[in-house]
Here is the input.
Amino acid sequence: MSETALGVSPDPTPDPTPDRSPPVPGRSEDWSGDALPQAVGLRPVRLSIVWLIPLVALASGGWLAYKTFADEGPTIQIEFNSAAGLQPSKTKVKFKDVALGEVTAIDVSPDLKSVLVTAQLKYGSAPYLTKHTRFWVERARVTASRVSGLDTLLSGPYIAIDPVIEGESERRFRGLDEPPLFTTSEPGKRFVLRAPALGSLNLGSPVYYRQIEVGQVVGYELAADGQAVSIELFISAPHDRLVQTNTRFWNASGVDVAISTAGVRVDAQSLLSVLIGGVSFDTPETIDEEGKPARSQEVFPLYPSRTEAHAKTYAYKEQYLLYFKGSVNGLTVGAQVMLRGIAIGRVLDVQLTFNVEDLEFQIPVLVEVEPGRIGVRGAPAQGGRIKVIERLVANGLRGQLKSSNLLTGELYVDLDFYPKAAPEPLGRHGDYLVLPTVPTSMEALTTRANSILDKLDGLPIEQIGRDVAAAAASAKTIVGSPELKGAIAETAAALAALRQTAERLNGEIAPELAAALRATTATMKDASDVVAENSPIYIESQKMFQELTAAARSLRLLADYLERHPEALLKGKAGGR
Here is the structure.
């Protein structure tokens, strides 16, 4: 290290004149005249406090930027058909009246068919944005089933969210035109009904259990096969546990009026169901195994009425054909098939066929029978089902059309036994067994009347008329003959004589006969007095009969004694016996 660097002067010669000036920094001087190398300490350069202010500002800005970026929630885009009432930087995104974000921009879609609403949500909202999350504009709505969103009349519309955690994450959504009838957070279950037609049901139609509203219709769509309508229900908890696997649903819309022999029956759930429709359900009590709690999205059939819903159904069914020749006006698909007054099936199809060979029209009727409705007692029949049907037909089983309602003219197929019916075998047409039929009562009466008319047509009416005319002429001749007039005069004279005789009997014989009757009456009265209980003759007769009874008893005792002692006839009673 150099001496200059150490602060030592390079000239070692001492200056004879001492310098009294202040010491120079970096140089060590010896005032005694002896110059020796000395180390000199340097003062450090200090940083000014002014530089701390921009450093703190820079750190605060960086922290605020990081905090702002970290707390910024996701940005989403919602597609609506209209942006009525929505405003950027004013319209909120809410869930249960809690603001979760704000609309930042509103644009028109490229195809001009909808609007795109961009919203900025709060930090922590990302887990609730899945493909099942739903958005809709909450505004005042008044429908037949409910009133909602009245609070928006003052605060203005807002975008409501129904968050769903399950599912894939999503940032672009399609908004609902109408608010859902229930949110995902509401406890309950969804069920699906399959019906041939929607009927009067609509969104918001009530669902009843024992006439208590427990749910609503939340959606409907045409089934994939196009043959039915799928109706989605939501039943809120705890009523959802009432739905079992054997529960029956039926359409409770309108008023159900039924006319039967028991009278007129009117069934309706409520005025609301009459106006907008409704669905009701119940679990019928049967001897079958109890059902289990139904799972969500389970499918049930929707029956037209409560009666059909509670009707017992059977899995095994048999189909038969019946051919009718007369009119079947009033027989429709679904008409009942009765056996001895018990419904055992229904009509599936009614057609009209023409036989070219005999130039006759026939009406084949396809029926479906549920054999399970007929209880079988005793040992099973031998020979199988066909043999049993053949025996029944041989014993007179026939089908006949009968009227079920005189007012509407509805017909049903009645199966019964007609022993006097003409013998017919059990037929077959394709895969169906053909049951023989008999004409209706009116057809039989018409046939008999036609037979009588045919016989009348065979009679010689003209000859009979001529004979009657000749007989009338002969009678007229006889009436005008003198002999008949003389016979009439003699008859009149005989009647006059008979009248005189009767008058004589009435004037002379009748009084004597009356007197004789009075005498006979007196004699009978005297005879009655004689045989009366308190008459002397009656009393004496009683005494005489008593004495005769005593004498007979004595004779019986004597006979008994002689039978034991026959020697008494010779010796008498010996020994004083």
About this structure: The two ends are 198 Å apart (CA to CA).
